[in-house]
Design a protein that fits this description.
Elements: H1 9-25, H2 38-47, E1 54-60, E2 66-70, E3 75-76, H3 83-94, E4 101-107, E5 110-111, E6 114-115, E7 118-122, H4 131-143, E8 148-149, E9 153-156, E10 191-199, E11 204-210, E12 217-218, E13 221-225, H5 232-236, E14 238-241, E15 244-247, E16 251-252, E17 258-263, H6 267-281, E18 285-286, E19 290-292, E20 303-306, H7 310-320, H8 323-337, H9 345-360, E21 381-382, H10 383-394, H11 399-405, E22 425-432, E23 435-443, E24 449-457, H12 465-476, H13 481-488
Parallel strand pairs: 6-8, 7-9, 8-18, 9-19, 12-15, 13-16
Antiparallel strand pairs: 1-2, 1-24, 3-21, 4-7, 4-20, 5-6, 10-11, 10-17, 11-13, 14-15, 22-23, 23-24
Helix pairs in contact: 2-12, 3-7, 3-8, 7-11, 8-9
């Protein structure tokens, strides 16, 4: 009788990885379901979406055992599921603790509170230079004893090559914050938040504005109106123009307090207007002006403002599907791959594709990477390829950071209102006109964890959400009651 010799631990682990990869690369095995679950098909039929519009790959995490494969090899538009490529690549290549640095130079001596020269700020792509952190940067300048700047405040955004595109290019909505273009020095997402607070006694709603911008006037009150809340934004009859924001209508009192975020209509001057307004508000004086220009070369900065760690910003990107932050991260990958060279969109595409090929194998025409956010009509990837990446990430050192960044069904992020699998599914959502999708990890009734990728490409994709929910519920019930009981003994 022959006995099989036990493999060393490393060899056993390697054989497990090879087996998992083989399951995903080989033709569909007989154990995987080849038809959609009846409840999923029925939900698609009710939505008026054909089964051929759906692509699905569900595999067991760790083993790679397929549970369901349906048109999983067909390239589809993933919408915001593309953020998974960007964030996984960043976590692996940069590390969860990596931070952006925004250096600041005091180009001159400080005498009696006066900087005898200019203040220079150079961006490196920090995705979260929001109002509070810009204030902190300028506060640190004041802690160096600066109350007056005799020269200019010079903003250096040369680390990213300018994008030859308009915010209106994607969908004709240039004032939507998700359409803001990336920039090496991108302050407060180049957007303004308007908060409408009813004051019934005065018959008005007060308009609170963050941030205030130099040279920009905003109507600070608007009349109150009766009736239901309804289309309150339309009722305001807003006009957003460079330097002037008007509200010619009325605000429904029934709405209570509401907010409206708007991308600034003059993004090319937004950073300068914000810095000028904030410096003045903080009591600072400026003899010159705020302008674009190059930072000093060959000498260290006075200080650097560090961003939060990458893992924290990846959570913002995936939990809330933040397109602007994803684009900042996308270009940062190119910047880090070629230090000293301005990051371009093309370099970022090539960098991300090269990483994906190294991780999952040659792609051929199966993968098209247009940008890092998924806000694109051109991006393509198959459900099988994305499932393979998620399966590999499950066994990687950054698995915990990635999973914690995904929306939790029924709890937070873009899935906070979801009713399927409360607390049992960590899934990135993706939606565009004609696209709906989910991708991530599901904990089943049997205690198994599954990688799930499901994407609908169809003009009625918005109506197919119940079918995706049904697919998640079906994944939860991966084993009949008898088998679950046996597994528990």
């Amino acid at each position: 009788m022959f006995r099989t010799r036990r493999l060393p631990a490393v060899a056993r682990a390697l054989s497990t990885c090879i087996a998992a990869a083989a399951l995903l690369l080989a033709p569909t095995p007989a154990v995987a379901a080849q038809r959609l679950p009846p409840e999923v098909g029925a939900a698609l039929q009710r939505a008026g979406v054909p089964e051929e519009a759906l692509a699905v790959a569900i595999v067991e995490a760790g083993s790679g055992r397929p549970l369901l494969q349906w048109r999983d090899e067909v390239p589809v538009n993933p919408a915001s599921l593309a953020k998974l490529l960007t964030t996984i690549a960043a976590l692996e290549r940069l590390g969860p603790a990596w931070r952006w640095a925004t250096p600041v130079w005091l180009d001159g001596a400080v005498e009696d509170g006066v900087l005898q020269g200019s203040l220079h700020i150079r961006g490196s792509g920090d995705p979260k230079l929001v109002l509070e952190r810009v204030w902190l940067l300028l506060h640190r300048v004041q802690q160096f004893g600066v109350r007056e700047i005799r020269g200019d405040i010079v903003l250096d955004g040369s680390a990213f090559a300018p994008a030859e595109a308009s915010p209106a290019d994607f969908d004709g909505e240039p004032l939507r914050p998700y359409n803001v273009k990336p920039g090496a020095l991108l302050l407060n997402f180049r957007s303004v938040l308007h908060t409408f607070v009813p004051d019934p006694a005065a018959g008005i709603a007060r308009v609170l504005v963050e941030p205030m911008l130099a040279g920009t006037q905003v109507d600070r009150v608007v009349p109150l109106a009766g009736g239901p809340c309804g289309d309150w934004r339309g009722a305001l009859k807003a006009s957003f123009e460079p330097g002037r924001t008007r509200f010619a209508g009325a605000y429904p009192q029934a709405c209570g307090e509401m907010t409206w975020a708007v991308a600034d209509p003059a993004p090319e001057t937004f950073d300068a207007r914000l810095v000028q307004a904030l410096w003045t508000e903080m009591g600072g004086r400026l003899q010159g002006r705020v302008r674009e220009g190059a930072a000093p070369v060959g000498r260290p900065p006075a200080f650097e403002l560090q961003s939060p760690p990458l893992a924290e910003l990846v959570r913002d990107i995936n939990k809330f599907s933040n397109n602007v932050m994803a684009q900042q991260l996308f270009l940062t990958l190119a910047l880090q791959a070629a230090p000293g060279q301005p990051a371009t969109l093309q370099a970022a595409r090539e960098s991300l594709l090269a990483w994906l090929v190294a991780r999952t194998g040659e792609t051929g025409d199966e993968v098209v990477i247009d940008n890092g956010s998924g806000l694109s009509r051109a991006t393509r990837i198959s459900a099988r390829r994305l499932a393979r990446l998620l399966l590999q990430t499950w066994d990687s050192p950054v698995m915990s950071e990635l999973m914690s960044s995904l929306p939790i069904a029924g709890a937070d992020g873009t899935l906070r209102r979801a009713t399927m699998a409360p607390g049992r599914a960590h899934l990135k959502t993706g939606s565009l006109r004609d696209v709906g999708g989910l991708a991530g990890y599901v904990l089943s009734d049997s205690g198994r964890r599954y990688v799930l990728v499901a994407v609908v490409n169809h003009p009625r994709a918005a109506f197919a959400r119940p079918a995706l929910d049904a697919l998640v519920q079906w994944t939860l019930r991966d084993a009949p009651a008898g088998r679950r009981a046996a597994a528990g003994n």
